[in-house]
Amino acid sequence: MFDWLLRRALRLRRAYRSLAARRAVVRGQEHWQLPALEDHVRWLQTLYQHRWPVTGDGTGDRGSALGVEGEAPPVFGDFASEERAGRPRILFVGEVWSTHAHSWLELLRETDYNIRFFAIPQGLPRDDFPWPTYVTERPAAAGHPLRRGIAPWVYDLATGLDGFERGDGRAKGLPREYLAWVIRRWRPDVIHTLGLTPASEFLYSTQLDHTDIADIGRWIIQLRGGSDLFFSHADPARQYLAIVVKAAHAVISDNEVNYTYLEQMGVPGGKRASLGTVPGTGGIDIESLEARWDGPPSGRRLILWPKAYEAPWAKALPVLEALEMAWSRIQPCRLVMSMTAVEVRDWIRFWPEEMRGAVEMHEHLPRREVLALMPKARVLLGPTLVDGVPNTMFEAMASGAVPVISPIVTVSRVVAHEENVFFARNLYPEEIAAQLVRAMNDDQAVDAMAERNRAVVRRLACRRAIRERVLRFYADVLTGST
Predict the structure, then answer these.
(1) Is there a contact between 377 and 334 (Cβ–Cβ < 8 Å)?
(2) CA 278 to CA 265: how far, in whole Å?
(3) Which has the closest alpha carbon to 307: 281, 339, 336?
(4) Does the structural domain 286-461 have CATH classification 3.30.70.1230?
């Protein structure tokens, strides 16, 4: 009964707030603020996970959970012990499940920065995620560590019952109230959003409703490859994204084309970050991959296809047709696929038995397992329609594998056909088949390409060198010199 009443009250409060906000806009006033929000946010302190609740000053202590003295939900550490007094604070906002996000944050290990993560309502941190994290999504499994000891209505408060909605460029629900409260209390020096959509939209819409936080921290946007802007920059309905970008201090991208798109959308200079273009993962550990080479590439027979899905930015079915066309000419071989879409699985069931027996399909391979396979692969299969500069391409180059990828504009500016990669357009099975046959049979070309790529990948994606640039960039942001 209590849960039902609380849900009802929250719905009524949201409806009233929406009506008052519309009236305030008409009158040219600031959006109306929920009067009792501070009281409810005290309950939300239990959601400062994976850490102990944070008190009013934002520094944190081992306070009580749900107002019960001495009680606290299961945690994996605490905010207080990881807070370095007087050191700069960086708040990351984004999808906490993203391996790209994890890899970028690893660049900041063993620094004096105070790092926290605000997970937008699209997933939960893994159990070993090492950074203090604010969660806004209720775990589905009853036995999940983030559910034990936490009443369901606490999650309802954090997610606003309706969770996270998009469509008009505005995020709805209480997660925005939660983010505003975090920024107001912790006062980060830098806010780094991972992706233009949805993370940067989420922060911007929060700032619209809470104008007092707009000047707290310097805002950095990190774009995701080509998917953030390729379609958006040409869509009149999504030109509002330029307004989001203009509100930030700087934009990080893995390719130059994104800055061109932003300029076309009316963003001066594309808000280009001073550190230049960098891979979204923060680069790759070249020495580690080179040390695991499984003999010369010409002696390998593994084809690795890490993104076997159907999406607006990559089509799998032409690749399947190319594999059928080339199969008899690339034997012996083994094909390992990750992120395998249901549609792809359905069509592979119609392949001859001798083909199916050489195929290993995975719905999802952890990134560490993909990296373990790279030095064993002869070919990285990755035709696409839209992308930035693929991290898998760099990983393949450092591993001695030959990338068979598409000559999209973001890629063709940094690597050359037959020098570093074999180009094949995504929608042309004959091209993919021809380059796959060449990559699996021309031993001399494969070994020569692998040797050339050692120097190229070190220049473009060396993690050690990129880390130095990233740390200098954050230092410049904090001093206001960028």
Answers:
(1) no
(2) 22
(3) 339
(4) no
